């Protein structure tokens, strides 16, 4: 019994060592929109992220207070909670909605099927667009296009709703991102954004360990910068296109269980090892340190999960 335990411990330590080495040597630092597109193309093509995270490449909502919940169900529940928080369930069916950073279309399909929105999903990744199209059944009012959120190809005032989940950290200029989101909204239209945010460093500068953690979170997943909740709401208002103040909320507690749950998926679903083999295991291990750092950062208040709701002015 003791020898088996020793072997298991050695294997665990070896696994952690391999993951840490891969983590340090294969950082995906942000270079441009093309580097973000390449990263998502790779994650989409190998299928590992979809296998473990499902159709929703975003965190889940576990309730207030959080409770145990199936990982994939929590992700779908997040979409419904965001719809209710944003007041989108009161809009008429057939309203047009732009999903900025749509991934492989999980949220877009729920918005189209359950709420009757006429959805256009955009992502910078061609492989994500292809996969989203493949996963969308005929008759679902959701289409998908390659587009850049920093320079949206749509005319002013094109959509009744603009929706975005966890896309902001990939944007190099948050002011331009905020202006583009508001620009394509029709007068009276609703913007609803959910994002990973950093605590507001203007009130208290980050200390050494916080700067070190944030540097890793930026470098590992192609992020140029995290905005703060306060900072991004100010940027939205600075566009001059919002009707009154931007509504915000912090869903850090509601989404926090997503991080340990995402690691648990690799243990609870061993079929992934059969499906993807040793290369898949190595790729999965490479992401574990970043997920653990995310969990630490959100638990400690260094990162916050921000919600934003804004109405487009009737008269700019």
UniProtKB/TrEMBL annotation:
Keywords: Membrane, Methyltransferase, S-adenosyl-L-methionine, Transferase, Transmembrane, Transmembrane helix. CDD domains: AdoMet_MTases (cd02440). The keyword Transmembrane helix applies. Pfam families: Methyltransf_11. It comes from the Bacteria. The chain crosses the membrane at residues 292-311. This is Methyltransferase domain-containing protein. It comes from Thermoleptolyngbya oregonensis NK1-22.
